[in-house]
Amino acid sequence: LKLLTTSSEKQRKSYNLLTVLVFTHKAGVVEEQQEAGAAESDRPCPGGWTKYKSRCFMFVNTAMTWPQAESYCLSLGANLASVHNYWENYNLQQLVLKNTGQHHATWIGGSDAVQVEQWFWSDGSKFDYQNWERGEPNNYGGREPCIHMNAGGDKMWNDLDCGVNLPSVCALRTC
Ligand SMILES: [Ca+2]
Ligand SMILES: [Ca+2]
């Protein structure tokens, strides 16, 4: 009986230790996230960049192909903007409107260049939101791998030939 008790006490102790470790780990993660969140929201964007939530965006008026636009963003330590919800999309539309006076067709960072219908953002973030114009993405002519916003009557997204020259929106990488 004593042996059993000792063994179960040991188990309980190791369980408690495990609980403490898990709790400590979780608490640490939450703290880190809060710190990162606070630091990001306090940090102003560099000149010429517009802040939305934790990211900095810049409208690039020079019309370029999608790969040229992405390269230009890269040269600024940024990528073409990824879009993850309705309000981010709306905010980017407002940025374009402010700069061009209209809902001008504008490159964002999505493409399915590797495999048709397998969409990725050039900044490596999850493709967790879409805002396609009716009938899109239609991969017209079998070669439309790049996403632009403000397409068609509803000003939503269209997949397009990456070689078309359009303005673009860069987003700074946050780290
Ligand atoms: Ca396509
Ligand atoms: Ca299309």
Explain what the structure shows.
This protein has helices spanning 2-42, 66-75, 86-100; strands spanning 50-52, 55-64, 78-80, 106-111, 120-121, 146-151, 156-160, 166-172. With 175 residues, the protein is α+β, with helices and mostly antiparallel strands. The strands form two sheets. Strands 1-2-8-3 form a four-stranded antiparallel β-sheet, sandwiched between helices. Strand 4 (106-111) and strand 5 form a beta hairpin. The model is unreliable at 15-39 (pLDDT under 50). The site of one calcium ion has 8 residues, from strand 7. InterPro entries: C-type_lectin-like (IPR001304), C-type_lectin-like/link_sf (IPR016186), C-type_lectin/snaclec_domain (IPR050111), C-type_lectin_CS (IPR018378), CTDL_fold (IPR016187). It comes from Hucho hucho (huchen). Residues 52-171 form the C-type lectin domain.
In brief:
It is built from 3 helices and 8 strands.
Topology of this structure?
Blueprint: H1 2-42, E1 50-52, E2 55-64, H2 66-75, E3 78-80, H3 86-100, E4 106-111, E5 120-121, E6 146-151, E7 156-160, E8 166-172
Antiparallel strand pairs: 1-2, 2-8, 3-8, 4-5, 4-6, 6-7
Bound molecules: calcium ion (2 copies).
The tally of strands reads 8
Which CATH class is shown?
Alpha Beta
First-last Cα distance? 56 Å
Tally of discrete structural domains? 1
Count of helix runs: 3
Percent of residues in helical segments? Answer: 25-40%
Sheet with most strands: strand arrangement: 1-2-8-3
CATH architecture: Roll
The CATH H-level homologous superfamily: Mannose-Binding Protein A, subunit A
Arithmetic mean pLDDT: 85
Provide the list of bound ligands, each named once: calcium ion
